[in-house]
Amino acid sequence: MLEVKNVYKTFNAGTINEKLALAGVDLKLEDGDFCTVIGGNGAGKSTMLNAVAGVWPVDMGRILIDGQDITRLPEHKRAGLIGRVFQDPMMGTAATMGIDENLALAARRGAKRTLRTGTTRKEREEYRALLADLGLGLEDRMTSKVGLLSGGQRQAVTLLMATLKKPRVLLLDEHTAALDPKTAAKVLELSDTIVRENGLTTLMITHNMKDAIKYGNRLIMMHEGRIIYDVRGEEKKALHVSDLLARFEQSGAGANDRMFLS
């Protein structure tokens, strides 16, 4: 479903601040894979997600989704293939618009715009049912401005928007990092449910190694722009945090990175 082939990305090339962010990354996700991504600061995790999303062009290599080469496609032309939830709860939604209006925008992603009414009665009924499934009481606040919601509620709405049209690839970029532990756990459970029920191919960055082990069927560890560990299935389920810390230490990472991950 997703193939990242020998991808390189360097920032500030030719300057004193030159940084090799991706150093020949190879990754292939099968249809329905839920892959968690861990690594220290500057490991290349978000750079890899941004490369898949088309935020910036890569220097070398290819990126394919469902067999389609999207390497040179601009970000907006990938919108119909990719759903994304960001770390910042303020991103991914229109704060001054209602919950139902935001969902309507997501439902029309990639479609031609018309002068018809913003949302139909049928659509509002569908949105109410989807919001009810979240268990946050948002189905009774459909016209509330999204900017008035809590961080967790907003991330839940963003998650719903990102998956409304069943994207070929879902990118979760540390989407619970800005939330308190209780809210983060709720949003992670919602994410897992939505991914499993819809069979979505998913990449999820997290700094919480317990979550990286608990969720998904596959785990990769990155360090200095490379994938240094790739585990899946029963082997992944049997992992402990200590195993990941030991693996990370073997990579030659510094004490600060190990502390950050732990």
What are its keywords?
single chain, about 260 residues, alpha/beta, six-stranded mixed β-sheet, four-stranded antiparallel β-sheet, 9 helices, 10 strands, about 35% helix
What would your notes on this structure say?
The protein has 262 residues and is α/β, with parallel strands linked by helices. Helices cover 35% and strands 24% of the residues. It has nine helices and ten strands. It has helices spanning 45-53, 99-107, 121-134, 151-163, 181-198, 209-214, 233-237, 241-250, 255-261, and strands at 2-11, 19-29, 34-39, 60-65, 68-69, 82-85, 169-173, 201-205, 218-223, 226-232. A six-stranded mixed β-sheet has the order 6-7-8-3-9-10, with helices on both faces. A hairpin with a 2-residue loop joins strand 9 and strand 10. It is globular and about 55 Å long.
Q: Helix count, per DSSP?
A: 9
Backbone shape? globular
Query: What order do the SSEs take from the amino end to the carboxyl end, as H and E?
Result: EEEHEEEHHHEHEHEEHHH
- Beta-strand percent range: 15-25%
Count of DSSP strands: 10
Summarize the amount of helix as a percent range.
25-40%
Major sheet characteristics: 6 strands, mixed
The average pLDDT score comes to 86
Radius of gyration: 19 Å
Extract low-pLDDT stretches: none
Structural class: alpha/beta
How far apart the termini lie comes to 31 Å
Multimeric status of the protein: single chain
How are the strands ordered across the major sheet?
A: 6-7-8-3-9-10
